[in-house]
Please model this.
Amino acid sequence: MTHTTIASLRLLNQQIATPRLKTAKELVSWMGAMQAQDYNHAKWAIGVRLPHLTEIQIETAFNKGEIIRTHLMRPTWHFVSANDIYWMLELTAPQIKSAMKSRNRELGLTESVFGKSQEILVKVLEGNKSITRDELSVQLNKYGISTDGQRLPHILMEAEIDRIICSGQIQGKKQTYALLSERVPKKVILTKEEALAKLAKTYFTSHGPATLPDFIWWSGLPVTDARKALEMNKPTLISETIDTETYWFADTVSTPSTIPDSVYLLPAFDEYLISYKNRRAAISIDHHKKAVSNNGIFWPIIVVNGQISGLWKRTVKKDTVLIELDHFRPHDQKEVQLIGKAAETFGRYTETKTEVKINKT
Model:
């Protein structure tokens, strides 16, 4: 196995190449969780893997509560299936709480403050209400809970990982919060061992080939737990060693040498790049510095035959979407044509015409 093969298998396993799933809920469940701090880009992360769906259809699944946006794992915003949210929060919350303890103390956020805040949140949200962050801030202050500075995001995150609140329905273009118990009334609960085994199986099946350090980075789990999770799945996984690193993956697809003539415009923070600690299978060190900023911003990427070869951005106009390309290297005529087709795919997703502009080569 080579790094090129690893990239090709990841395209297949992540449902980017030859997608096989039908709904947003199925896709998010297959992936385990999908990083989603930029909501619009995160919708496209689903859309590029479900090319038969439009942005409106994916947002409808979100508004129905089939997929939920909340803080998980590392922690940061993620999409997660309604079927998985309870057990995944149960598994990853202790590590998040430990990581946030010092900062919460600095902000004067005690268990008493969190408890009172969550009582208020339940009171103002019950009845299947979806309320914006700003509106919740007003209510918390009204009942004596200061939301100055960074207190509000920490109060809301604690309520998320305590399984009190989660994403609600979009209001215009604004995100909202709702009660998790009302948004997802059916709870799927697993033991810790069951949850560890399921999370590792999901990751190495959907993101493989990947290493143990990759899984530790993605999941945010303590090393001991992550290693245990992998050990429980080794009998059903295949492994290959490259440069002393062992890669694990499920035997669910045939191993291609390459995926020829494939181009994808992937969104910011896409799982294809962000979900691995070691990303050299898909991007060189020099190009990595262009695709990922020093402060951890993952830009939208152009992927040609599994390799990241540039960046792109979209600008919404009145009746078109302008897609601007910044290439890391010259692209031949066939690649340029395929990039154009990838832009058309994005246009079908947004149900608008696309205009492509190459800024540099």
